[in-house]
Amino acid sequence: MNPYFIVSLPRSRTAWLSNLLTHGQSRCLHEAIGQCSPANAIHDLREVLSNAHNHGKHIGDSDSGLPTLWPRLKDAFPKARYVFIVRPFQEAFASHRKAFPCFDEKMVHAAFVRIDSGLEKMRLEVEQSISIDYDQLNDPHICKYIWDFCAPGEPFDFERSEMLQTFRVNQIYDAAMERAHPAVAQQVKLLRHD
Question: Residue 63 is part of a domain; what is its CATH number?
Fold first, then answer.
């Protein structure tokens, strides 16, 4: 199994790309390491990807946490392909603060720095990779380029790509939060408007 990995800073459309890349014979998980125990992250990730491989020919994970597993990730998957989504640090951090205003800002900043450092190391060491600017993800031809890199030989569905352009993960997150914790959801809405 030679998976593909979508890596970036948080708030760089990794969830959206996971949806785009889960179609036909491609299965792209989102934040698969969240299903893994910290002590056995690589072993568990291999198992999660292997299980997904039973349902598709091209398997990947779109996850901003993957850079924290470098270089163990490279050792475990030496033939993996990587898509780097490049978004300016301050822009991604500001987006996170707006989306999740109740998080501890210093803790989140430290996590962003750690992820950004891992991304830099990864970019220098991986052999099979492409880099895409965050702002280019609205271009269906760029989406096809990513698709062809991750799922070679599989047909790209331009109509589906266009449909997904309006999909925003925050809308789903906000609706789930509203149902599960209405008081917290109201506080988040108030904080976002300050």
Answer: 3.40.50.300
Alpha carbon distances (Å) from 106 to 98, 102, 109, 111: 15, 12, 5, 9
Q: Is 138 helix (H, G, I), strand (E, B) or coil?
A: helix
User: Which one-letter DSSP state was computed for residue 65?
Assistant: T
Say if 59 falls within a structural domain.
yes
Q: Is residue 111 domain-resident?
A: yes
Name the residue range of residue 136's domain: 4-169
For the chain, the domain total comes to 1
Single out the residue of 31, 15, 20 nearest to residue 169, CA to CA.
Answer: 15
DSSP codes, 51-73: HHHTT-SEEEEE-TTGGGGTTHH
> Is 161 inside a domain boundary?
yes
105-163 pLDDT, tens per residue? 899 999 999 999 999 999 999 989 999 999 999 999 999 999 999 999 999 999 988 88
Q: Quick check: bond before 3 cis, omega within 30?
A: no
